[in-house]
Amino acid sequence: MAILIGREHPAAILRAEINRALTSHGSLVLVTGEAGVGKSALVSDAAGRAVTAGARVLSAACWEGEGAPGYWPWVQVVRRLRPDADVFAGARTPFELYDAVTALLVEGSREQPLVVVLEDLHWADTGSLKLLEFVARHAWFERLLVIGTHRQGESELSPELKATTVALSGLSRAEVGELVARTTGVRPGDELVGEIHRRTGGNPFFVEQTARLWQGGSPLATIPAGVRAAVERRLSRLSAEVRAVLRTAAVLGREFDDTVLAAAVTGRDAGAPPGQTVDVDTPPGQTAAVKVDVDTPPGQTVDVDTPLGQAVAAQLVAPAGEGSHAFVHDLVRETLYAELDEAGRRTGHAAALTALRSSDPGVDLGTIGRAHLTELARHAYLAAVSEAPALLLAAAQDAEARLADEEAVGHYRRALELVPGDERARRTEIELEMGLALQRIGEREEGGRAIEAAMAAARELDDPALLAHTALKLYHLGFPDFVREAHRRLVRGEAARIEEVGEQLSGLAADRARHRGDDRKLAATLLARMSAIWRPGTAVERAALAEELTQVAARSNQAQFTLNALSWHAGALLELGDPGHTAVGRTFAELAGRAGLPLFEHEVMVIRTRQALLQGRFDEARQLAEATRKLGEQPYVDGDELRWMQVLSAALLQGRFEEADTVLAEMRAAGSGNVPLFAGVVAAQRGDAAGALRQLTVLMAGGPDLLTWLAPLWLRFQAQAAALSRDRELCANARAAIVPYRGQWAVTSTIAVDGPFDHWIAVLDAALGRWEEAAEGFTAAYRAADRLDARPWSVESRARLAEVLLARGADPAGLLADVEREAAELGMRVRLPRPVAGSMGGSNVFRLEGGVWTLTFAGRTAHVPDAKGLHDLRALMGSPGAEIPAVELLNPAGGAEAVAARRMGGDAVLDDEAKARYRRRLDLLDEEIDRAAERGDDRRAAAYDVERQALLDELRRAAGLGGRSRRLGDEAERARKAVTNRIRNTLRQLGERHPELAAHLREAVSTGATCRYQPAEPVTWTW
């Protein structure tokens, strides 16, 4: 039966008692619970089962109010059992009456088992209750079952009465859903079920009434008339003092802290002399004020324990934990709250606001663990106090950190209601934040309108601070026209790149906030600036900005800004190769855990995953990546892209290319725009030169139009692809792009570590045959990795160092053994070089000493005089497989940069566009250095100067006298002929002195515009 949803256990108890009465002896069962909880329905079901089993049921109900005769429920029972019996008129004493009624029941039960049902015993007169006790005691051995219903705390039944008690409580959430479905014929959604359950406490009658109103189109906040009447009846039994305290509790909310309630009651009555009575509340329609005696010394609070105890006994509130209580359902709270007029509500909310603050002095707008912040904002709004907008905005920020953007939108709307219309700048900022939150929850049309309105107001007001703030908020969100417009108004110039716009705007905004001493604006602007300048090479400045943000957060007691600063600082220190990044990240994780804000919980997981990848705990990293994905969507973070990047990082370091291919397939299926870059990196790591170059061509054809956050991965890929190609132009260009970041680490999107930049510079040096530089670079890289305990990258760099040592003729056996052992420990598949003597056997030497070459190969040694062709061969043999332009062999003193591009004709090392970008960046750096010097900020000035010097060094290497671009020369054809002739002559002469070596070189060396040494089997040479 639908009416018995969730009552299976109580129904089973009653069935057992019926069976006992039918077969052996009787008993008394008392069914208790609040009005509407389903007592009558349960008893009715039991009575029906009793009739089916062969019993006779005698039902009666007590009468509420005056006018009912004594023993009224028993009068009904006797009439139904023996209509002709006149025991009530004939009995001379109560005892004679009790005995006569009991005798009639015993006699009737011997003819047929009896079930007596007495409803609403809380309304029974004293005589009826005593008669019940008499019957229960003296008919124990008869086939007689008495079932009574009553509201616990409202009846005068003796606690010594021997009875089985069945206490009914509210239905569970799932049971409420089932009851709503059966009541309305419509399956309700989870959110609706939750709201009805919260409002009704699971009371079946209240659930049915609310569900029917909802089905009829009424809002859930409507209190059904029948429910209101039921609640009012229960409240009417309370004293005026208890009811007044409960009204204050209703202002606090569904659940309330007892200490806060006491402080709120005192706050409402503040100002009354001790010992006098004060008017707490006058319910609408009453003429007499409800009074409560307040005799509390100043600074102390009213004792609410006694009123709460009475409310608990009346089943209106219930304990909700140590020192707190909750209304049994919202309908009780709302009925009490409705008794307050508008002035009373404002007064109550103001008192609640003061009470919350006084109960926890540590609660502030920026304190971690601000459990009361949303409550403070609600009470401030409903009390219409002056600090309400600030509290609402703080609550909105807190909601956003909890990823509760719907809640944040509500706070923003209420703040807009309270901010005066003449405060247009403030209203514009709120409207902008609301628009962004609306877009995050999918309300793009309304959110877009709010953002457009905010932009229009910012233009009209033409306030520099507001323009900069609005532009920085929209910088990464697809509003380039407005951002550039704001930049033109503030900077009075045009920036070529949107990145320059963000850098200049954030710098100006930060300076304004510092000058005005506005810590809130400064904190927000520092965050915007760190985001705007994020790219390789800015880690020093970002670390300084993060430290400044930490100081600002401490001054303004803004916990969220502290967490943001720690997160940014940890990332910047990692890019700088500073082991201190671990301690900063650990502090961030501890504070974020204490704050319990999902936004920062997500960031903690990202940092933990990054650290696990960095240190080679790959299985842990994969588990953390999956756990991060399960945290759900984050603002402006694509969860799939995040996980793909994390998993790919692990797969590439371990050499698990099957896993990498699976991730790439997922990215393609999802339509990710980053597939070419990641596919290229996978191909390059695999050693697939053709695949890597194919993706490089795709990316270069597109611009490449890559996000700034992917710049480190793009630099890595260029280095890998160029090195695999052995193309001198590609290698030189990739090297020039990476050299400014020497000594730093590549960290893509703050998520995945792509190794020390020294490692990738060394990879290019090795490809260019610069063995000394490559050895130094790989050594610097693995030492940097060891400082960070980045074992996978140490393994990578040491494995490549072994290759270089082999190419130089050294024996890296010990190094290779260590690398192989550690790679196995980490589960890495690393391609390790192996010395190969080839079929020639022995130790192979190609060395110039005192103008004489010592040549040893295939067991034969020859000494030959110096010749240019031998130098050419030595250069080729030093870079097996590399395509070396003949112009470089002809003029090795010119350096690699002079012939970086091997096209026919003379091309500049840097074209005009590249030089223009360098100059723009240098101009911007000069401005920032001047600005930092004016502020006395030596650290930031030094950071800018480091980047400036690196750019100047690159320009000097790429420019000739007077700043003219160095050209590559048009000597290709002449060089081809000259070098080819030199090598052929040398091989002809060498055939007479060392025929085995000459034959090997003729087979392995090719000449032309580019030359190459590519033996069929690797050969180790000692130089």
From TrEMBL:
Pfam families per record: AAA_16
Orc1-like AAA ATPase domain segment(s): 4-147
Keyword Transcription among record annotations: no
InterPro entries linked to this entry: AAA_16 (IPR041664), P-loop_NTPase (IPR027417)
Keyword annotations: ATP-binding, Nucleotide-binding
Protein name in the entry: AAA family ATPase
UniProt organism field: Nonomuraea typhae
